[in-house]
Design goal:
- The complex is a heterodimer of chains A (646) and B (254).
- Chain A is α/β, with parallel strands linked by helices and 646 residues long.
- Chain A contains 19 helices and 26 strands.
- Chain A is 36% helix and 21% strand.
- Chain B has helices spanning 15-29, 35-43, 49-53, 75-79, 96-106, 114-128, 144-150, 154-166, 189-196, 228-241, and strands at 87-92, 136-139, 174-176, 200-202, 215-223, 245-253.
- Chain B folds into two domains: 1-55, no CATH class; 57-253, Rossmann fold (3-Layer(aba) Sandwich), CATH 3.40.50.
- Chain B has 254 residues and is an alpha/beta fold.
- The chains are: A alpha/beta (646), B alpha/beta (254).
- Bound molecules: zinc ion (4 copies).
- The site of one zinc ion has 8 residues of chain B, from helix 3.
């Protein structure tokens, strides 16, 4: 079992910059300081609980700051007071933890063990000759630093990665602690806690250092790893258990591109693409490229707002090219694994000299080095200040808009002074507010102000690649929609569109709000179109045959697909129409409905198509979606007119 | 914290659909007199109606010794010369879903699944062993080093809940003295049987026989694969309990 020691370091004489440190290997700290400066190390105590040691460090540091200023000598009384403060804090933590775990036996005699230290060590500076031992340690450190460069990993992951790269790990704790002391890395407990005080009740507040989840998402556990009061995060569990006793290591990418790397960068950046941009695409791509190339600090975020079917992936090529050419690594993060798998080969083709990897839960390339990394948003949590350019695709598609976990993870992956590019067809409100300016002048539509087409923080592409307008959905309210369905009574507009779409040899997406609706709607349609039964199928997220069914739909073996929102993006089928059944349901928000409508009319030989929103009662989202689509069409027309004038 | 979505599909727990599924499953699992108990247990499973209907419960005839599906003593059991287990019973077939769910619990460390798995074990208990007066519950222990790495023993979490439900005390009777590789990493059946040889030793106190002089132990584990782990545990217990001991094992998966 590891133990973590808390000590305060002061200047040799005065309280100059007194600060508390946590260490799993005090001897390493002593020799580290010895090589640098004369100082005094005052031990406060030790515990097997990493989270406890860190929570104590925080309050001790806070106390040092408020009480001592900078010039008071550190007295024995002062130290005794701090040690007492720690003891009280431990006691209160144990009480609060025990209260939350009422009825459960602790694994040891108490929930938290704390052993007060009462000694101080004077460290005199000493230049130590490099012996073989020291040299070996320094070599190991540089290897390890290189492997961990720009990553944020739990202890177990750190070991796994280093083993995979055949880095020397026998002295790992010492090496990492030296990196931490020299501020080339940070470490924290996987789950941290603090006592939150309010006038009526004190409580223990836990949060996950990796994903930022807190409160009810953190589960207490009787832990045989540390034998202390412990807890783990249920939200990021799929990527390894983040616990109170698991060290979480953050290593920022320090490496500046060396001149030979910049030379190599020029080569890896070679863009091999024979396609061409439409006039609007070219303008947008150039705007984004300029943002990425601009070395001015402070410009940290940019939004490419491109409607469904505007050809947004191609827009990125010039930006990626410029980032690679300066020797930097590029990350493209997207919420869905299918997009990762589709993007990777596509980018590899256009950047043939760059190393492109696809990173998702079960990917074998997960731990490799690359020029272009394409990752699911969850995997982004494993990076730390690594990429000069991060592209966040479909920022709105994440389960919860404005998700703090996603925001935090993505922001952390960007190198200091790096660039973050958002890519979306339906940017969420908070992002529009942050990055998109509105037109000042009054325009045709008085009710909704139109956004500007470009600014220093965004560019908007309102029109599709092929130049035709977006199909505008038709909304129809059908009272008693679900009752009719259950009773097998005809819903004429639904039956009519099924009949006409299939008669014209087209295909139909039928979106439903819930998993259990899939079977129900299929059964309903089968009673009205018994001879079409073999051409209809249903799919939802947990369907084991999901991929196969989607493939069959693409190959036209199915003509009608009943689906939940899982197919709202990504899957595009030429000559298809769309119905949303129950468009008033909360799962269909404005962004989702715009995306769904965006399935239709994507190919240039069939730019039109029908989009029908059937709602059981009047609802805001379908209306808002239609308004947004209309606005985009209006903007596209406006843009065209402007260009003709110019 | 409890789950509020279905553990099978992640969907909603639709009470209306679920009701009929609960009734049908409880009816198949229990005799008429025990139906209310079974109904309460089955209704407590965090599954939607659709997934409950697909729960791979072994309802047909099974090997009287090891609980494998089939109408008579299976060939594996036939070949065993020194049987130490009175019998084994399991509730579910080990399908792909079960594999994923169990590994989320065991290896990923999602301890919130303990409630669900414990409920399945309790159901299995009422179905198979209710008539037996057990003196205690015990579990297959993890090696100390493995326990430290993993942080918890998944079966101990189940035992605690089962004990509270049934009113039978849990006793730690065994320690694991041999580190054995993970099940999936072992070569074959014979290798497994050999590696289990002497893997456990006695850690309990002196056996207190009950009034009738017998000593009945309910031995829990998550899965019965070849049974060699459970038999090795039983052997160690029997060596201390003497001829009056009888060990019955119960697992979720078979
Ligand atoms: Zn987390
Ligand atoms: Zn722990
Ligand atoms: Zn389900
Ligand atoms: Zn058998």
């Amino acid at each position: 079992m590891r133990e973590y020691l808390l000590y305060i370091k002061t200047g040799a004489e005065k309280m100059l910059s007194a600060q508390a440190y946590v260490t799993p290997c005090f001897a390493v700290d002593q020799s580290f300081w010895q090589e640098r400066e004369g100082c005094k190390l005052h031990v406060i105590g030790k515990s097997p609980s990493l989270a406890l040691a860190f929570s104590l460090r925080e309050i001790v540091n806070a106390r040092l700051k408020e009480q001592y200023g900078t010039s008071h000598p550190m007295s024995e009384e002062g130290l005794a007071e701090l040690r007492e403060l720690a003891v009280q804090q431990v006691r209160e933590t144990a009480v609060l933890y025990g209260r939350d775990m009422a009825g459960v036996e602790p694994p040891g005699p108490e929930w938290f063990t704390w052993e007060t230290g009462d000694w101080s060590v004077s460290v005199t500076p000493e230049i130590v000759e490099d012996d073989g031992q020291k040299l070996k340690l320094r070599l190991a450190t540089s290897t390890i630093q290189k492997v961990l460069d720009g990553r944020a990993l739990l202890w177990e992951e750190t070991e796994t990665l280093l083993l995979k790269r055949e880095a020397p790990i026998h002295d790992l704790t010492a090496v990492l602690q030296r990196m931490v002391l020299s501020e080339r890395a940070q470490w924290r407990p996987g789950i941290r806690f603090a006592i939150k005080k309010s006038w009526w009740k004190h409580r223990l507040e836990m949060s996950c250092e990796r994903c930022g989840s807190r409160a009810k998402d953190i589960e207490y556990t009787v832990c045989h790893s540390c034998g202390q009061g412990c807890a783990y995060c249920t939200v990021c569990l799929g990527m390894g258990r983040s616990k109170c006793c698991t060290p979480y290591l953050l290593v920022p990418a320090t490496r500046e591109a060396a001149s030979d790397e910049r030379e190599a960068g020029r080569k890896t950046a070679r863009l091999h693409w024979s396609g061409s941009f439409s006039r609007d695409q070219a303008v947008a791509a150039e705007q984004a490229r300029r943002y990425v190339a601009n070395p001015r600090p402070g410009l940290s975020q940019f939004l490419i707002w491109a409607v469904c079917g505007a050809g947004k992936t191609e827009l990125l090529f010039p930006s990626i090219e410029v980032a690679l050419s300066t020797g930097g690594r590029v990350l493209i993060a997207t919420p869905r694994k299918d997009v990762v798998l589709e993007l990777a080969p596509r980018l590899q083709r256009v950047f043939p000299d760059a190393r492109v990897i696809a990173v998702h839960g079960s990917s074998l390339e997960k731990w490799e080095e690359a020029d272009i990394t394409i990752a699911t948003t969850h995997q982004v949590m494993r990076y730390y200040q690594r990429f000069p350019l991060v592209v966040l695709d479909e920022v709105d598609a994440f389960p919860y808009h404005n998700n703090p976990m996603l925001e935090r993870a993505v922001a952390r992956a960007v190198k200091l002074e790096g660039k973050l590019l958002f890519l979306s067809a339906t940017p969420p409100q908070y992002l529009q507010k942050r990055l998109v300016a509105e037109r000042k002048e009054k325009l045709v539509l008085k009710k909704s102000k139109l956004p500007l087409l470009r600014s220093s923080t965004h560019v908007l592409l309102p029109g599709r690649y092929h130049g035709s307008a977006l199909p505008v959905p038709r909304i129809e309210t059908i009272p008693g929609l679900y009752k009719r369905m259950r009773a097998n009574r005809p819903i004429s507009s639904l039956l009519q569109i099924v009949r006409s779409t299939l008669a014209e040899g087209r295909q139909l997406f039928l979106f439903v709000p819930r998993i259990d609706d899939v079977e129900r709607v299929l059964a309903y349609l089968t009673t009205f179109f018994p001879d079409l039964a073999s051409q209809m199928a249903g799919v939802h997220a947990a369907d084991p045959q999901r991929d196969e069914k989607v493939r069959s739909f693409r190959e036209k073996r199915y003509r009608l697909m009943v689906t939940t929102t899982i197919l709202e993006r990504g899957v595009t089928i030429p000559r298809s129409d769309v119905v949303v059944l129950g468009a008033e349901a909360p799962v269909f928000d404005e962004a989702s409905l715009v995306q769904i409508a965006g399935r239709v009319g994507r190919s240039s030989d069939d730019p039109m198509g029908v989009v029908l929103f059937l709602q059981a009662e009047r609802a805001a989202s379908p209306k808002a979606a239609v308004r947004q689509i209309r606005r985009m069409n209006q903007l596209a027309k406006l843009q065209e007119a402007q260009e003709e004038r110019a | 914290m409890r789950y509020d979505t279905c553990l099978g599909c992640g969907g909603r727990l639709n009470e209306r659909v679920k009701e009929s599924a609960v009734r049908s499953l409880a009816g198949q699992l229990a005799s008429r007199t025990r139906y209310p108990v079974m109904y309460r247990l089955v209704a407590g499973l965090t599954l939607c109606g659709i997934c409950m209907n697909q729960l791979p419960v072994m309802l047909g005839p099974s090997c009287p010794q090891c609980g494998r599906e089939g109408s008579q003593l299976c060939s594996d059991c036939h070949n065993i010369t020194a049987e130490t287990l009175q019998s084994n019973r399991s509730l579910l077939r080990y399908n792909e879903w079960g594999k994923n769910l169990l590994s989320t619990f065991k290896y990923r460390g999602e301890e919130r699944l303990a409630d669900f798995f414990a409920k399945l074990l309790t159901i299995a208990f009422y179905r198979y062993y209710e008539a037996i007066a057990f003196d205690c519950i015990t579990t297959v222990p993890l090696h100390a080093q493995r326990l430290q790495e993993r942080g918890f023993n998944q079966v101990d979490l189940l035992a605690k809940r089962l004990s509270a439900d049934l009113g039978i005390p849990v006793r730690s009777l065994l320690v694991r003295t041999k580190m054995t590789a993970q099940l999936s990493k072992q070569a074959g059946r014979t290798a497994r049987v050999e590696s289990m040889e002497g893997a456990f030793s006695w850690a309990g106190e002196r056996v207190q026989k009950n009034v009738s002089g017998s000593y009945r132990v309910l031995l829990l584990d998550d899965i019965y694969t070849t049974g060699s782990t459970l038999r090795s545990c039983a052997k160690t217990i029997l060596a201390h309990a003497g001829p009056h001991g009888s060990i019955y094992s119960l697992t979720i998966y078979r």
